[in-house]
UniProtKB/TrEMBL annotation:
It comes from the Bacteria. It comes from Acuticoccus mangrovi. Signal peptide: none annotated. Gene3D superfamilies: 3.30.530.20. Pfam families: COXG. This is Carbon monoxide dehydrogenase subunit G. PANTHER family: BLL0334 PROTEIN (PTHR38588:SF1).
């Protein structure tokens, strides 16, 4: 499955970049995130609980950041195992564009594959769930950087 979209963030590029690299901000923004630990500047481990249709799963996974261009872009690659529910793996290219002094466009192009019980659910349900999770994450990021901007200002 492939997802591609852009989200306008109410902050400058440095603030957006900091939020996208802050494990505390990310943990609050990722739907179902139970824990997120940054083991190294380019590596995180996470536990995320999700429900996809009738399947509930608790995924334990790793995320690696590569091709990092500070305050501009990176490639995020990850995989997670959800026990009998199956596995998920994917990647996302994230790019920040300055729109104005206090607005940044976050562009992402992501792809994911699933296996096990999750793969048996059908692409329509998986695509719909992935789009809802992505929309929730990016709305949470918008709120987080907006709140940060207001607190700082």
């Amino acid at each position: 499955m492939d997802l591609k979209d852009s989200v306008l963030l109410p902050c400058d590029r440095a603030t957006a970049w900091a939020a996208l690299n802050d494990p505390d901000v990310l943990a609050r923004c990722i739907p179902g995130c139970e824990t997120l630990t940054m083991d190294a500047p380019d590596h995180m481990t996470a536990v995320v609980a999700l429900k996809v249709g009738p399947v509930k799963a608790r995924f334990e996974g790793e995320v690696t950041l590569s091709e990092i261009v500070p305050e501009e872009s990176y490639l995020l690659s990850g995989h997670g195992k959800g026990g009998v529910a199956g596995f998920a793996k994917g990647s996302a290219r994230v790019r920040l564009e300055r729109v104005s002094a206090d607005e940044t466009m976050l562009n992402y192009d992501a792809s994911a594959d699933v296996g096990g019980k999750l793969a048996q659910l059908g692409s329509r349900l998986l695509d719909s769930t992935a789009r809802k999770l992505a929309a929730a994450f990016f709305e949470n990021i918008r709120t987080a950087v907006g709140v940060t901007e207001e607190v700082d200002g």
